[in-house]
Give the backbone structure.
Amino acid sequence: MQGRRWLIYATILIWLPLVMVGGAVLITRTVAAPLFVAYLSLFCLVASLVLFWMGIAGLLRRRLRLADLLWLGLFGVGALLYTQLTNALRP
C-alpha cells in the first residue's frame, strides 16, 4: 500500500498545474499569471518525479495490481500533457 500512496501523491502533484491552466484557458482563453504557473509546474514536476520513484521502489517489493497500473497510466498521461502546458504558457 505504501508504494501506491506515493504514486497517488505524485499523480496529484503532476496534474495540479494542468488542471489550473486548463480551467483558466476554458474560462478566459488565456493563462492568468503564466510565470507563477511555470514555476509551480516546475516544482510540481520535480516533486512528482521524486514521489514517483519512491512509489516505484515501493511497488517493486510486492505484486503489481490493477490499481497500481491505473495510477501509473494517469501519471504517464499527465507527463505527456506537459508538452501542451508549455504551449499554453508561451507569450
Summary: The helical segments are 2-28, 34-59, 66-89. The two ends are 43 Å apart (CA to CA). The chain has a mean pLDDT of 84. The chain is about 85% helix and 0% strand.
